[in-house]
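Help! Submission page says 'invalid entity' but I think these are all valid:
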Amino acid sequence: MAVNTQTWWQQGRVAECDDLADGVRRIVLTPDRPVHAAPGTHIDLRLDLDGHRRKRSYSVVRSEDGGRRLTLGVQLAPSSRGGSRHMHGLQAGDVVEMTGPVQSFPLGVGADRYVLVAGGIGITALVAMADTLRRRGADYTLVLAGRSRRVMAYLDHLVETHGDRVRVFVDDEDVRLDVASLVGEIADSAAAARTEMYMCGPIRLMDAIRRAWATHELPGPNLRFETFGSSGAWAAEDFVVHLPQLDRSVRVGKDSSMLDALEDAGVDVMWDCRKGECGICQVKVLDVDGRIDHRDVFLSQPQKETYASLCLCVARAARGGSGSGSADPAAVTLHLP
Amino acid sequence: MTVLDSPPTTAAAKIFNFPRNAWYVAAWDHEVTAKQPLARTVAGVPLALWRNSDGRAVALADACWHRLAPLSKGKLLGDEIQCPYHGLRYNSAGRCTSMPAQETINPSAVVPSYPVVERYRYVWVWVGDPDLADPDTVPDMHQMDSPDWAGDGETIYAPCNYQLILDNLMDLTHEEFVHSSSIGQDELSEAEFDVSHTDRGVTVTRWMRDIDAPPFWLKNMRDKFPGFTGKVDRWQIIHFEAPSTIRIDVGVAKAGTGAPEGDRSQGVNGFVMNTITPETARTSHYFWAFMRNYRLDSQTITTQLRQGVHGVFGEDEEMLAAQQQAIDANPDHEFYSLNIDAGGMWVRRILDRMLQAEGLPAAAAAAAK
Ligand SMILES: Cc1cc2nc3c(=O)[nH]c(=O)nc-3n(C[C@H](O)[C@H](O)[C@H](O)COP(=O)(O)OP(=O)(O)OC[C@H]3O[C@@H](n4cnc5c(N)ncnc54)[C@H](O)[C@@H]3O)c2cc1C
Ligand code: FES
Ligand code: FES
Ligand SMILES: [Fe+2]
């Protein structure tokens, strides 16, 4: 389980692409400097979006021939800033700027039981893990949840490969994933303390699992997750950031992050992971008009509820369901370090 | 005999690379404790080793996720290790379990944890692809903890490439020159030897009949047969098992009593157990022991044999260090082979194939890494 967190850039060529499911493209890349991508790794791509070089991450679904062929599965995001739209426009033969495999979601060895939980496109981070666990002869279960079969990538393939080990939940068939019973079942099993869960999916699903995991007092480190860093409690809206120290206000469009908008406005802010994990971009909140959609995994639930601080890279202000009739955009007033 | 897909290379690299997909001994069992972590580098990978409260040995990468401080300098707190620098804690799977100054744990905070097997008084680790780590492929060293054998050994920290040690053990004619005062004798370089091999093993067999026992063996004979005098038949059967374990079945028996034909009852038999763990391209941990199958209850003999072999191996260590220095001082000179190198060359061929399977070159990178 080499943890490769170092990023280096190279060129890759698109070898193949086709549709995996509604709104999901399969893209096979052949990198210049092939390195095997272990289960859980992703690659970063540098994309030209409206004149800005932006980084977008995609999990490696499959690494073949020592990393000479890397398969990605990319979902077209509903109100995309361009990343996934750009990816969907790629054709065989196109050249992309990409990193080698980056590992921030490594699969462990030696657990008695593994439970993999994929919500929607989150499955891309778990396909290779499931294959590896099957090859190891490990005890594992793969839980797939999605809105409808049409949009669930790899569904048939996974059911065929993993048979009884797969459990499928589909919203529009009214077979919904019941988080409480899934986690309760783990807690009641003999292997409870030696069961590892790997999850990747919408933040609300992951929050619910995290809460259930804590309620049952299962060991925190056994719950592993990858955040795709873009889903929140409410749909993205335009909002305003007030910066009294600079005597400025910056408008954040619904297709931009607060961090991007501040940087574009020339504000010097500190960051590292840009996906709501490290807390380096945390700033103090002085005032909120509306609600904060935190979207990070750095602050604890109680900390989030106090509205005392937020992570610039992922958090948004929103009217949310309640004040959506109001004409004024939501606003936050921040104290920068 | 193997049928070849492609012609083999000569594999005459002087600084030999090491396979990663293999079990290597990281430490003697007693070196790994629940009291404090042990730092040891195996096949280029720095490890922190310790034991959980249930006795299970653990090997984590010896670099904290945060700023890479060595975990081996940290503290053991129950079944967790605490980084000595900013206090991050990890469990035996390498998962961070606590981060100071924040209420959550960064989901990517993990250090690699390596498969470990404890067997034959050693802690073995696998630093390659964990999905290939099959405990059934731990090299056979069963004499180490069998009730039919007794003995003990030590570790040599050898300032040389591991392959030089394998070469040394695969050809024992050097005993005549390096170990003349203990086990060396003229007949060594005169006796014929046989070499055979499989996919993962090489065996070199040498018998010397009707000779005088050298001092080391005369003492052993007298331990079993008090007052023994006379000629002996002497054997050395070298068993290599990939990647770096060599057991040498050695002994002498009263001449003409049928030892070459299989009756060793009139002799003394030992197994020189060697397993070599590359640390860097130019340094190795060389674990050895001398096991015997007679007078099992005598701690005196165990101690005397360990001290005796310690002296013999000290002579090898000096030679190996000098050889490595000469290799490094003469970078444009090649290795040439003699007929006596046949066993060692088969070892190189097997290692070369393992390296090829991992996509690695036979020659280690030039830097002392
Ligand atoms: C480690 C990792 C692995 C990933 N793997 C995959 C993968 O395998 N497949 C895949 O399809 N995607 C994956 N992603 C997500 C991917 O990187 C992109 O975020 C995704 O493609 C959307 O990018 P975009 O530019 O099209 O859309 P974005 O503009 O980023 O918008 C996506 C969605 O988020 C909302 N949004 C817009 N701005 C923000 C903001 N600042 N903060 C929060 N939400 C916002 C939008 O309304 C929209 O619904 C991964 C992300 C990470 C970090
Ligand atoms: S930059 Fe890491 S949480 Fe925002
Ligand atoms: S380096 Fe280990 S906690 Fe900082
Ligand atoms: Fe020797």
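Support: the input was valid. A stray whitespace character was the problem, and the output above is from the cleaned input. Chain B touches chain A at residues 61, 65, 91, 93-97, 102-108, 110-115, 130-131, 133, 359 (CB under 8 Å).
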